[in-house]
Amino acid sequence: MRDFVLYEGKNRYNDSFRGFENLMRIKGMYVSGRNNYIYCSRTVQREHVPKDVTKEVVSPKDIAIYNTLRDNFDLAVAFAKKYLGYYIPDSRAKDCLAIYYASQGWLYPHSTVNNIPFMLFYLQPAINPYGLLIKKDSELEKSVLKTEDLRLEPLSGKSGNYYNKLLPNSRQYMSLTMMLWGHQFKEDEKDALKESISIQISKDISQNPEIHEWQTLIDQKIKIPELKFVKFINAQTTYRNKDLQSYAHQLMPPL
């Protein structure tokens, strides 16, 4: 098995390495200069770059993020499904990748290889969550069940083993919107990295069809597990979604 390591030129994979060198590479991934840590947010946070400002200079970190997503787009989608708590169809995933590519999401200063699956969908526009398939036993499902304005409808067939359908809990029309927002990260007193984004679902309470007034129904914080995506990539030795892989390679030329 190949272990995912530091991006150096065109080689993004290397054989297993041991001991302290392995720990340092995974934890820091220092290339040159303190802004080039590839895998974690521990150092980019010290740059104090506004979150919504992108960089003009493409660093080795940026190239690593770009090519990692290009080569592992299907795995990024699978990982996002697992942790965000809702089903992401391939068509929506492709739309999100197109938006990510057009907006050069890899230049977002707080992007890392580890948070690729979350930044991919963090940058998408708000969507209508009507009929969204919510993963059973997820944190998002728990939040939905606590909300009077929303309900979950059981599904038949194989999908029903894993998901329920999100619907308004009303006989009247309800306009809904969902977005990912609030990317945060910090180290606690034990030097552990706490990184998260939030899923927000809102309903329109405006009486004027020309003006929206959104009331938040759910604001669920999702923890981004440190280094898990890197391990997830290394563990995938069998099934890959060839359609998503092909789409990413066609859309994104290698850097």
Structural features:
255 residues, alpha+beta, three-stranded antiparallel β-sheet, 23% strand, disordered N terminus
Protein described:
- The protein is α+β, with helices and mostly antiparallel strands and 255 residues long.
- It is 31% helix and 23% strand.
- It contains eight helices and eight strands.
- It has helices at residues 19-27, 60-71, 73-84, 90-102, 116-122, 139-145, 228-235, 242-251, and strands spanning 3-8, 11-14, 133-135, 150-154, 163-168, 176-187, 193-204, 214-223.
- The strands form three sheets. It has a three-stranded antiparallel sheet.
- Strand 4 and strand 5 form a beta hairpin.
- It is globular, with a radius of gyration of 19 Å.
- It starts with a strand and ends with a helix.
- Mean pLDDT is 79; it is low at 1-49.
- Strand content is 15-25%
Mean pLDDT rating: 79
The major β-sheet equals: 3 strands, antiparallel
First CA to last CA: what distance?
A: 25 Å
Helix content: 25-40%
| Strand element count | 8
Strand order in space, largest sheet: 3-5-4
Shape label: globular
SS field, number of helical segments: 8
Low-confidence stretches: 1-49
Topology:
Blueprint: E1 3-8, E2 11-14, H1 19-27, H2 60-71, H3 73-84, H4 90-102, H5 116-122, E3 133-135, H6 139-145, E4 150-154, E5 163-168, E6 176-187, E7 193-204, E8 214-223, H7 228-235, H8 242-251
Antiparallel strand pairs: 1-2, 3-5, 4-5, 6-7, 7-8
